[in-house]
Amino acid sequence: MLTPLKLNDTDKLQLARMANTLRFLCADMVQRANSGHPGAPMGLADIATMLSLYLKVNPNEPLWLNRDRIVFSGGHASALVYSLLHLWGFGVSKEDLRAFRQLDSKTPGHPEFGHTPGVEITTGPLGQGIANAVGMAFASKYARGLLGGDLISHNIFCFCGDGDLQEGISYEACSLAGLHSLENLVVIYDSNGISIEGAVQKAFDENVRERFIAQGWEVLACDGHDYDSINTALVSAINASKPSLIIATTTIGKGALSLEGSHKTHGAPLGKDIIAQAKAALGFESDEEFAIPQDVALRFLNVKESGTLAHYQWLKNLTPEAKSLIDSLLDTGSIDYPSYQKGQSIATRVSNGEILNAIAKGMKGFLGGSADLAPSNNTELKGEQDFPNGRNLHFGIREHAMGAICNGIANYGLFLPFCATFFVFSDYLAPSMRVSSLMKARVMYVFTHDSIGVGEDGATHQPIEQLSHFRAMPNLLVFRPCDGNENVACWQVALQQHTPSAFVLSRQNLEVVSDGADAAAVARGGYVLQESALDSHNPRLVLLASGSEVKLALDSQKLLEQQGIATRVVSVPCFDLLLAQDEAYKKELFGESKVLAIEASRGLEWYVFAHEVVGMSSFGASGKGEALFERFGFSVENIINRAKMLCH
Length: 648
What we know:
Elements: H1 9-33, H2 39-52, E1 69-72, H3 78-88, H4 94-98, H5 128-147, E2 156-161, H6 162-166, H7 168-179, E3 185-191, E4 194-195, E5 198-199, H8 208-214, E6 218-223, H9 227-239, E7 244-249, H10 272-281, H11 294-300, H12 302-317, H13 320-328, E8 345-346, H14 348-362, E9 366-370, H15 374-377, E10 392-394, H16 399-412, E11 416-422, H17 426-439, E12 444-448, H18 466-471, E13 477-479, H19 484-494, E14 501-504, E15 510-511, H20 519-522, E16 527-530, E17 541-545, H21 549-562, E18 567-571, H22 575-579, H23 583-590, E19 594-598, E20 612-614, H24 625-631, H25 636-647
Parallel strand pairs: 1-2, 2-3, 3-7, 6-7, 9-10, 9-11, 11-12, 12-14, 13-14, 17-18, 17-19, 19-20
Antiparallel strand pairs: 4-5, 8-15, 16-18
Helix pairs in contact: 1-2, 1-3, 1-11, 2-3, 2-9, 5-7, 5-16, 7-16, 14-19, 16-17, 21-25
């Protein structure tokens, strides 16, 4: 158990100097940029200073596995993040602080993972960071089971505000954290009572304490500007046997004189006069910008010294066996993929379930689950126990938190997570997927029930616009395989990428139309699946399709060729990868041919390649899948008619 530090009056004076240095660094950053959020950083400075005394990080080895993680769910407090990273000894210089929110600086407006050393995860959209921290705590709990408490003994700290707790994602994530008693998770709630529009009570007056107690959390409280109070709460939270929420009563813009407690400090510079007067009032020795007293700098650098020592001691405990296990968790070399016979009938959601199990068997760091849809998504890992004793995660019907939790698991550094739901419900987790894509976090999204082929469940469950949405998202690879073999190849390609990937899969059975997995072809996004027998060099028509519509393209090709129209079929399992190919390859596929794209979705993006698109211009309907495909024009007869008109 951690023992609280004993603080005398001299200690408290030193802590106040440290906190005031933080406050004014943040105020100066925002003032120089003439843009940003000084209020929350100034209000949190005392808590951040006290946390520094207990923190375990090593700036020389920022990815050390057993480091404490700090997540700022309120990413607008980025000035505080960067000031701390500078003072702790990470690779953030004073010049970087001066370049706050400027183009190409290390200090953007909201923290970005991979851009600034020491930033654990990209935050900004409120509530995301809480769920990210829950994901990191998920990962650490499973890692502790694998490696033992000597190697995994760190904490996850998350700063949040009123806005984070108002977002529904925080409730979803915190419910799971309580369910699993994620005891190394400490959320510090900056309860300053102020939002952009003024008093928080205008829109948020619930009993946060009782809410978290009901979810199985330890709930503590402190005066966010009293060091004894903060000290006691932090140590109690670190020692707790369940996730902890510290409700820290703070004043937004603390130290900003007449602007203290005002919503005006949330998102605007304080003004040079106010800053100068505030520095004088608090006895700050210099009114120069970005001043850091030497004693303050040395005291903050104790974080680096103690973290370096803790890292050294950890390395002494790292056995060759444990290191070998860590190094092997994401090795793809032992995966024995399934294969499928041409002519076999199997839904891609079913083949995908077999692929998931093959990956899990060969890759011990592969884990994940579904939003209460595992039997339909085919995502259960056979022979595995449920978390925390195994790799099957049960997210419940919490799609948004599911995505953000997986971001946290991915950024933890040991595991490759996947999560799953019906494709139409991807809308619920799109914000988390966007952050995955911003970070290039390796999260695998499994989406089944991919089109109007869902059938009788009707338009509410039939995705129409989602494919276009996610294909438009930078850094996200969207795979829609036509059969089981192409599905295997899609996974082989995805596992070699350093980005998130989404797999869009059929509910209904699809005939296997490819001979085997050809990862090299899939890696180019699109490839010739069936060449024209009439003119393989310059066919009159190219039929482009993905997923279930590839078989329709093949059936249409046969009749078109019988009628003298030389037709090539190109399968496009990954539109994004095809779009990235050079013009020479695209010309090789399309030449001077007329191009007709076929896809049971909105499909407007296909006009990049196609002269015409057979797609959806409305929502679907309730009925048998076969009847719906016929109703909406996904029939051989309609494809032939459209092809003839195009080639006329």
